Amino acid sequence: MRVFRGLLLLAGLTLGGVGTPVFAAPAGDWPCIQAKVPELSLGAFWSGPPVDEAALKAWRETPEIAALVASVVSRRTPVEDAEKRVTDFAAARKDDKAGLTLVFAGAFAELNGLRATLINGIERFTRNQRQIAAQTNKDRAALQDILAAPEKTEQQRARIQELQTKIQWETRLHAERESTLRYVCETPVLLEQRLFAIARAIQNEM
Predict the structure, then answer these.
(1) Does any domain span residue 18?
(2) pTM for this structure?
(3) pLDDT of 29-40, one tens digit each?
(4) Ramachandran angles phi, psi of 74, nearest 5°
(5) Residue 173 maps to a domain
(6) Residue 148 contacts by C-beta under 8 Å, 6 or more apart in sequence?
(7) N or C: less crowded end of the chain, CB within 10 Å?
(8) How many whole angstroms separate alpha carbon 23 and alpha carbon 30?
(9) Domain limits at 76?
(10) Is 85 inside a domain boundary?
(11) Residue 146 domain-assigned (yes or no)
């Protein structure tokens, strides 16, 4: 279906090369339906022992905890497996609330940082899409000007072919990138869900 829509868009560009600009520039840098929340709040995920700035760094100092954090935050690890690894860690370290708190601190620090990087990437994505759209509109306007001339030189005919090819490529690029937007926008949400699952698994063991 996405390919079909892309072909329709290309057809609209190439049939005669006239009409209004194809693209409207986005109003802002955040394109997602989800509200933009640049930073996560500890309190939204954690009701256990206090987690301060020191804890958000100290988890790296214990190799076992650092290794566990790396495994549970990895998107290659299914959430169910991440939860089980937390359970196994707790079973091996009975009543180690301090250690479990550091696991959460590490998971929060890593996932919150990764999520912030993704949000910045989404905004760069939007700015790039806007640049592609602006260039396509500019090329389309130039094509319309040449097509409006009653008689065309050989140079103008060559320029028409060049612009049509360029517009087709720009449109395909824009459409292909746009088709990934839903997945891109869902990624920060998936990280939040992973963090919530990890926090719940940890607190269940306390």
Answers:
(1) no
(2) 0.75
(3) 899 998 899 999
(4) -65, 130
(5) yes
(6) none
(7) N
(8) 17
(9) 2-6+47-204
(10) yes
(11) yes
